[in-house]
Amino acid sequence: MRNFWKKIIIENILEDKDPNHGAEYSSFELAKGYRELKINVFRWVKDIILITAGIISAAFGLESFLIPNRFVDGGATGISLLTHEVTNIPLYILILIINIPFVYLGYKLISKQFAIKTALAITGLAIAVASIHFKTVTEDKLLVAVFGGFFLGAGIGLSVRGGAVIDGTEVLAIYLSRRFGTTIGDIIIGINILVFSVAAYLLSIDAALYSLITYLAASKTLDFVIEGIEEYTGVTIISSHNEEIREMIIAELGRGVTVYKGKKGYGKSGETSEVDIVYTIITRLELNKLNTEITKIDPNAFVVMSAVKDTKGGIIKKRRHKH
Question: Is residue 107 one of the residues assigned to a domain?
Fold first, then answer.
């Protein structure tokens, strides 16, 4: 068994990094390879769980809310639903066909691994829609729009956290933004305006407006799932009382800080002087307290705040300071 794992580590980890390594691998190299293999296996298991949960959530939103009430969503999923309503082609077939170009673009623009995961996720969603038949939960249009969008957005968000997509609109947006020099957000908005305009023409104005609510609910849920419960804010503080501010952040807020050297310029002649810059990451709920405490220490402190999409490592979670 030991030789089996040794062979797996050498063939899948160590040889990929250094194919010309001729000598026997040391115990340290094998241990390092074993640790990397464990991380890879854990990541793949986690990704599979997230993608599977995303597929089930999206399938539930489609089967129990959107399809029975003839609602559509934005993006590739919306195009699939709209085409299904007009042509009666089975939705699972449309999900596969319409997303094929997006999988190819994902392979070209992002990575082979992303394309494989996305292809498997989209296939899984098509199979779930074809084989799992959830009951219709409600026919109330507002509830259908809100909760259909919620479950669909949660499904897409969980899949993204697992390293795949079950709606390829963002991949297309990345491609078009690089080609035409526009922002990804503008392209996604343009695609969805087109989808909802066609829905208004082919279905009805009411259906298109309710579908817009579905899209908004899905997009907000997707953001919530990807970014998490706590929205982080990065705060840069420049002050002559930087040491006091640093101690306050650690003691009062229980957050970690980073202090780095900088120069500040002032006056008409552009004179400069060295200054320690304090940087920390907090939640939006803690901003008010941080601003109050900074004002107590230095009312003239220069504070810059910026949104942080995600964080990893470091002292991010709040910890109690031990006096």
Answer: yes
The residue assigned the tokens 């320690």 is 276
DSSP notation for 161-218? HTT--SSTHHHHHHHHHHHH---HHHHHHHHHHHHHHHHHHHT-HHHHHHHHHHHHHH
Write down the pLDDT at residue 43.
Answer: 83
* Amino acid at the residue 170: E
Taking the C-alpha atoms of residue 29 and residue 289, their distance in angstroms, rounded to an integer, is: 48
**pLDDT for residue 42 is more than 80:** yes
Residues 125 and 242 in one domain: no
Closest to 225 (Cα-Cα) out of 147, 306, 156: 156
Are 244 and 125 in a shared domain?
A: no
- Distance separating alpha carbons of residues 215 and 301, to the nearest angstrom: 42
Domain count, the chain: 2
Q: In this structure, what token pair is assigned to residue 99?
A: 């997303």
- CB-based contacts of 63: which residues, under 8 Å, 6+ apart? 129, 132, 133, 134
Cα 215 to Cα 150: distance, rounded to the nearest angstrom: 9
Give, for 279, the enclosing helix (H) or strand (E): strand 271-283
Whole-number average pLDDT of the chain: 82
Residue whose C-alpha is closest to residue 84's, from 102, 106, 104, 63: 63
**pLDDT of 319:** 46
Quote the pTM value.
0.74
CATH code of the domain in which 255 resides: 3.30.70.120
Contact 78, 211 (CB under 8 A): yes
Q: How many CB atoms lie within 10 A of CB 276?
A: 16
Tokens of 249: 């952040």
pLDDT in tens, 171-181: 887 777 777 77
Q: Which domain holds residue 275?
A: 232-308
Tell whether 315 is covered by a domain: no
Classify residue 88: in a domain, yes or no.
Answer: yes
